[in-house]
Amino acid sequence: MSILPNLPAPDVPQGPWALFLDIDGTLLEHAAHPDAVVVNDALRMLLARLEAQLDGALAFITGRSIAAVDHLFQPLRLRAAGLYGLEHRLARDGPVEAAGEPADIAALAGEIEAELASADVYIERKGPILAIHTRAAPHLLQRATQLVERALNRLPPGYRVLAGNAGVELMPLEAAKGAAIRRFMAEPAFRERCPVFLGDDTSDENGFDVINEMDGVSVRIRPRAPTAAHHTLANVDEALAWLDAVSRSNAKRLTA
Prior knowledge:
Elements: E1 17-21, H1 41-53, E2 58-61, H2 66-73, E3 79-82, E4 87-89, H3 103-115, E5 122-126, E6 129-133, H4 141-151, E7 159-163, E8 167-172, H5 177-185, E9 194-199, H6 205-213, E10 217-221, E11 231-233, H7 236-255
Parallel strand pairs: 1-2, 1-9, 2-3, 9-10, 10-11
Antiparallel strand pairs: 3-4, 5-6, 6-8, 7-8
Helix pairs in contact: 1-7, 5-6
């Protein structure tokens, strides 16, 4: 893994390439509640422009559900892997392969909601994934992590705990952004392209590993710790500026 000061900003790949994007902390600043973020028209236009320039080879890779993504970016319905790859929409405006909430996760969510009865903690139920957001109450992160780690002993095999910058999630082992990227790269729109992935959190590290294996471009936004990414951008504004510059470069190349 690399440390922030030694990492260069990314260059635009030469030849055909594909773009994979995390959302929160990458395209949008984090908020205390996931529903508090706002997508402006400029971002919608930028994404639509990039998707057209890449002939459809653009997909969100996110911990949000695809339904939540569609609500944020409406009327856009781009390709997406939601819930860390437990949900997929492989074609723009296409059907969603969804994931339901198992009974044991539903019961656990109720218990943790009772245990952490605080207006400053948001417990998000995302089908087979349980997320505890502590951005507004960082002092409760350790307690939340202890609760979900203890719950592993009561759940069937096949779950793991993933700690993030401002929260903790309990999820199936197969929920991995790297696996979602591999699936998209097998699709005709993405095949034989150089993959580029922008992400900002520990949940994106698995995706960076896969991108690096494919000789792609891995970019971590605002890293707070060692990262597998080969490039960094300082914050969301830099990420958006880089994407805009890439889009403008693409436009010039396509009209040349």
